[in-house]
Amino acid sequence: MAKIPVVLTGQALQSLRDSGYSLAAAIGEVIDNSLEAGANNILVRMDEAPPAGRSKKSHVHRIVFSDDGTGMDTHTLHHYLQIGYSTRYMRTDTIGKYGVGAKLAALNFGKRIEVWSRTDANEPWQHVYFDLDEAITDEQNGNGSTIGVDDPDVKPVPNDFGDVLPKGTGTLVIWSKVDRLEEGRRAKDFNSLRLEAEKEISRIFRVFLNDGRNIEINGKNLLAHDPLFMMRDTWAEQQLRDYYHTGEGPQLGLKISESDFEAELIAREPIKIGNHTAYLTVTLYPRAATRKRGLGGDDLAKKLRIPENEGCISFMRMDREISYTNVPMIFGRRVDDPDRFIGIEVSFTPELDSYFGVRNVKRGFEPHDELRDKLRIALKRHVKTARDRLEERWGEVARERKDHAGEHREITQAAAEAARTLPTPQAKTDIEPQQAFEVLALDVLGADADDQAKANYTAQVQELPFVIESVNFPGKQFMDVQHVGGKVIIRLNTRHRFYREMWEPLSGIAHANAASVSPEQAIKTSRRAIEALTLLLIAYGRAEAMHEDPHEQYEQLRDYWGMFLDSLLGKVKDVL
User: Fold this and answer.
1) Is residue 226 part of a domain?
2) Which GO terms describe its molecular function (predicted)?
3) Most buried residue among 172, 324, 500, 546 by CB atoms closer than 10 A?
4) Whether residue 153 sits in one domain with residue 301
5) Is 366 in the same domain as 486?
6) What range defines the domain where residue 174 resides?
7) Measured on CA atoms in the order 317, 321, 327, 330, is the torsion positive or negative?
């Protein structure tokens, strides 16, 4: 019997159309080639066609790529459409090395690929193409052995592409017979599809964009999107500038300058693997982005692409992102909502491809073996540091806001109304009330507050029978109580573990938009609150036990405390 082909080319290529590329990942494969060719300007154009036949949906029928790189000579152009061919095959100093990505990416969405290229601005454009429908027809007619790519020919570029054609050297790639981008399939409409591609490409190629390369999609020049918030003049910085200069930002009452647009570097740690090194970078998002607790899912957060960052790691190979994904259990714990404010990047060179599971297409990627273990250990440490800093920052913001109705204002006002029937306080003190409230204003507002702000605050609180403020003071004491002229001033110590682990998280959930609080976060915080309240009572009981006769000393205190608590709980509710 005669030998038969190992591969039925047409049918195999038809099967390879299901390679699982997203549109952005597919576009990225062509951009890779343009960057390797030294292009400074890369243009992408998606052409939309109206509904045809019985279909009521519009669709993208063609995608055009253009670059002003060095172009391809005749030999390279002839092999460009050959799966497995690459001038950089298996090299470790380039973005690509398998000769597969751009071809499979094209077939994933379209059935025809055409390429024009030239290496000399004074020479005509050379052209090659491959049409999958033609290949399958040839194979079905018994001509499978003739399937291939013809020699490049000189062919004028159609007028449809004159607006994107490079003036000098460069390459023009056209995917046509696109049949997998109809409205509602990859996105609800053409505009959503374009925006998603812009978002992904601006992140994948952020280093190149930040360094001055130009990538344009349907006439829009992309700004880099840095999920670490370390770069300047990015998409996120533009959104922050709009928010704080002309948007809703000033209403928050935060002191935000452009220096607050840059992230806080938590760690940049080398991860040694054999003779090579990967680098782990962890950042806490800037104050302008973290703002205050409970805003991780609002309109600004969505514009900054913060919710989608939750638990994600950006893996960078040769300054090109090849994956932005969650890696199961890499934090050593489950991912929580506040993790969306932590930027994580792992950068490496191709020598470490085997440790990162790099494949012939830049997808389905996950570190393993020794590398995974080292990353987990480092991330467990650095992510905890970032979370602690975030909690501290949110606590500072809660205390620094200058509206200063006060963190506990709603409850103290309601309690003031409810307290009119309570017994009159009997405490006597030599402390001058005006002086006590001025000191409190200094504790709450800080030494840099102007005299008017202090006067306004004092005027607001000195008429209340109770004042509670969260302030920072040294020592293990959770609260400090002053009795001044029949009024009670209570300071809660924000350094205390009870405040940090119970009070502040509960307060954050209480003031958050319901949509921004996950069930897991609510349950976790509630459980910790029950633990903390139980331990509060245990600690109080133990503190009483430090007196020789606690019954005689504290019985009346407990009676009053229980009586007042019952009365106030009955009268004060639903004020937050």
Assistant:
1) no
2) ATP hydrolysis activity
3) 172
4) no
5) no
6) 9-220
7) positive
Please, what is the average pLDDT of the chain?
A: 86
- The model's pTM is 0.72
Last residue within a domain, chosen from 192, 220, 248: 220
d(CA 53, CA 57): 10
Same domain, 466 and 346: no
176 vs 57, more confident? 176
Q: Decide: helix, strand or coil at residue 320.
A: strand
Mean pLDDT within 1-19: 61
Residue in the structure block whose two tokens are 């910790």: 528
Residue 182 DSSP one-character state: B
SS3 68: coil
Q: What is the CATH number of the domain that holds 61?
A: 3.30.565.10
466-471 sheet: strands from edge to edge = 466-471, 487-493, 479-484
- The predicted-structure confidence for 120-179, as pLDDT tens digits, reads as follows 999 999 999 999 888 888 878 877 666 778 899 999 999 999 999 999 999 999 999 998
| Residue 230 counted as domain residue | no
Tell me the C-alpha distance between 248 and 334, whole Å: 33
Nearest to 304 by CA among 235, 387, 256: 235
Question: CA torsion, points 420, 421, 426, 431, in degrees to nearest 10?
Answer: -10
Round to whole Å and give the CA distance between 366 and 377: 16
Other C-beta atoms within 10 Å of 520: how many? Answer: 12
For residue 119, what are its two tokens? 């290496």
Measured distance CA(569)–CA(356) in Å, rounded: 57
Residue 13 has pLDDT above 90, yes or no: no
Do 382 and 419 lie in one domain? The reply is no
Looking at the structure, do residues 472 and 534 belong to the same domain, yes or no?
yes
CB 205 within 8 A of CB 322: no
Neighbouring C-alpha atoms within 13 Å toward the C-beta of 547 = 11
Q: Are residues 189 and 264 in the same domain?
A: no
